[in-house]
Design a protein that fits this description.
By secondary structure, this protein is of the alpha+beta class. The protein has 4 helices and 6 strands, in the order E-E-H-E-H-E-E-H-E-H. The protein has a 4-stranded antiparallel sheet, covered by helices on one side. A two-stranded antiparallel sheet has the order 1-2.
Length: 108
């Protein structure tokens, strides 16, 4: 990653993302009160989940590996008699790394 002609970070996508501690964000819609589900998931301390919140009517979780965590979320939702109706996965990207390192968004 370069900024103003200077090299500020170097590595693969995965290495750079790990460097700044970015996590994958999963936004889930559920068929019940999202606050109830978020509270249950916080209490359950699902392995691989580092943060659980409610944002704009969705349950948002930060995870290390979405492939490992998603089945656990579905299993937990089933135990709570809750149906997950929508899943959006937001993988970290190099723009997020650049913003973290420089404090500025990418420019042309």
């Amino acid at each position: 990653i370069m900024d103003h002609g200077k090299l500020i970070a170097c590595g693969t996508h995965e290495e750079l993302v790990r460097l700044v501690g970015q996590r994958t964000r999963i936004d889930l819609m559920v068929n019940t009160e999202p606050g109830r589900v978020a509270e249950a998931w916080r209490a359950e301390r699902i392995e691989g989940v580092s943060h659980v919140a409610v944002e704009e009517g969705r349950v948002t979780v930060l995870v290390e590996d979405s492939n490992l965590v998603l089945p656990r979320l579905f299993e937990s939702a089933s135990r709570l008699a809750t149906r997950i109706t929508s899943v959006d996965i937001h993988e970290p990207n190099l723009e997020a790394v650049f913003l973290h390192l420089t404090g500025r968004a990418l420019r042309d």
